[in-house]
Design the sequence.
């Protein structure tokens, strides 16, 4: 693969889609295929690392609208149209709408690859230029929806939902097991919202004594309680104009839940020790690992707060329910790890994937990320035992040419000896080497061949 650029291929005809993917794959170009325009929308984000190739005629919507949409999101994103035989006027329209190129059916794989290569080159340059400009730091390899890797139907649905709700003012509840990406979702929502220039303030509601959490959230005036010497601005106020991420909401004490509910309803707060209401403009994104309805039934969570927050819930499926994302995530984390540790990017091998597919992933994506780091560093990990360690040491020090040649020679000799029932003379003749030479090599390579059974006659 040439780099992490991707061709987003929108084509409803399965044969055509397969043919295009194969042509691209043979040329070492990564692609991601969809059979309709709609699911492409959340994927196309500003700075998308790739180009778009779309069929003109699609079941819902059409290629030109998709080109228009893509250009509105990122005017520098190259789009290539695949047009039918008689669609030349439409192709011209598409070019007018800013399409980068068009290819008319039927076309050769070379034609497609050639056009895609040029588009990718152009894209790469545009992205390099925009990187030179200061951009918001991400630290995760991507921004907005690009942060959330995974083409499984479930992850596509998650991205679609995020794209839909990001711009609206609703508060959001994110639910998922540990390590499924709840914080990442919160950050995406923030980046895609009109609040992206405002602050993203995170607060963990767990593991903090009640009174401390209280003043963390709401702030206090000087002298509000013993030890409160100075006025303190709380996290809610800090998040003004931006997003407040409340992590582990399930651990928020009941008393605090009442106060939070009031803030959500009135969009005002009072610092501890003050009666003055301060207006705040925040969007709350709250994360929970637990089922809050169950907690409410057990009397440990306020149903009214739950209902206030669950207008929209983003449910993140555990990794074991979307194992088809593993390869993509692993490749993504390998690139990040290689960058971070200044190591070569490890290959995503079939054998490795096979071992990972059956695993339950209690730590979900975070666990996979840690594993990727270990592999990139060539560190052994209990998860995969000896085989992985072997794979990674091989990776850390690729075999030299001499070693490879010896390995090959050993294999040839062994095969010949087996073919000749272990006869040294016949094998030497077949390999056209002196018997003594062959004997030397057999000893050096530690080849042991069962001597041939004496034959009858
Ligand atoms: N879909 C994804 N694509 C890329 N990276 C992901 C994805 N999901 C999770 N990650 C990465 O996995 C790690 C864990 O994600 P995150 O911290 O968002 O999980 P979480 O649900 O908040 O976990 P916890 O409940 O334990 O706090 C992070 O490094 C994050 O960047
Ligand atoms: Mg988290």
Sequence:
């Amino acid at each position: 693969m040439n780099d992490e650029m991707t061709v987003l291929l929108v084509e409803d005809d399965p044969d055509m889609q397969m043919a295009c993917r194969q042509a691209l794959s043979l040329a070492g170009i990564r692609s991601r295929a969809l059979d309709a325009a709609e699911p492409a929308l959340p994927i196309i984000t500003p700075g998308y690392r790739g180009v778009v190739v779309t069929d003109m005629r699609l079941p819902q919507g059409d290629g030109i609208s998709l080109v228009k949409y893509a250009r509105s999101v990122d005017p520098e994103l190259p789009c290539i149209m695949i047009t039918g035989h008689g669609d030349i006027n439409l192709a011209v329209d598409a070019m007018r709408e800013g399409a980068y190129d068009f290819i008319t059916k039927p076309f050769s794989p070379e034609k497609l690859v050639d056009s895609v290569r040029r588009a990718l080159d152009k894209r790469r340059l545009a992205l390099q230029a925009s990187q030179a400009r200061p951009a918001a730091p991400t630290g995760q390899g991507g921004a907005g929806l690009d942060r959330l890797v995974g083409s499984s139907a479930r992850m596509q649905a998650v991205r679609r939902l995020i794209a839909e709700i990001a711009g609206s003012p609703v508060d959001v509840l994110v639910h998922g097991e540990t390590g499924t990406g709840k914080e990442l979702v919160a950050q995406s929502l923030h980046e895609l919202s009109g609040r992206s220039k405002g602050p993203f303030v995170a607060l963990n509601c767990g593991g903090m004594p009640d009174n401390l959490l209280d003043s963390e959230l709401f702030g206090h005036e000087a002298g509000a309680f013993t030890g409160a010497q100075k006025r303190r601005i709380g996290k809610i106020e800090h998040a003004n104009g931006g997003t407040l991420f409340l992590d582990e909401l399930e651990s928020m004490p009941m008393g605090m839940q009442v106060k939070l509910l009031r803030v959500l309803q009135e969009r005002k707060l009072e610092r501890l020790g003050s009666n003055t209401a301060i207006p705040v403009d925040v969007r709350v994104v709250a994360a929970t690992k637990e089922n809050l309805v169950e907690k409410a039934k057990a009397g440990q969570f306020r149903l009214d707060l739950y209902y206030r927050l669950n207008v929209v819930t983003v449910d993140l499926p555990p990794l074991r329910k979307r194992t088809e994302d593993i390869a993509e995530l692993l490749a993504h984390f390998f690139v990040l790890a290689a960058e971070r540790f200044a190591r070569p990017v490890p290959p995503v091998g079939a054998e490795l994937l096979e071992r990972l597919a059956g695993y339950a992933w209690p730590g979900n994506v975070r666990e996979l990320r840690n594993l990727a780091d270990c592999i990139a560093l060539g560190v052994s990990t209990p998860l995969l035992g000896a085989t992985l360690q072997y794979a990674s040491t091989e990776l850390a020090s690729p075999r030299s040419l001499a070693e490879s040649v010896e390995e090959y020679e050993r294999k040839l000799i062994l095969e010949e000896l087996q073919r000749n029932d272990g006869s040294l003379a016949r094998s030497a003749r077949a390999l056209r080497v002196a018997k003594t030479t062959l004997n030397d090599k057999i000893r050096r390579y530690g080849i042991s061949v069962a001597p041939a059974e004496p034959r009858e006659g």
Summary: The longest helix spans residues 109-132.
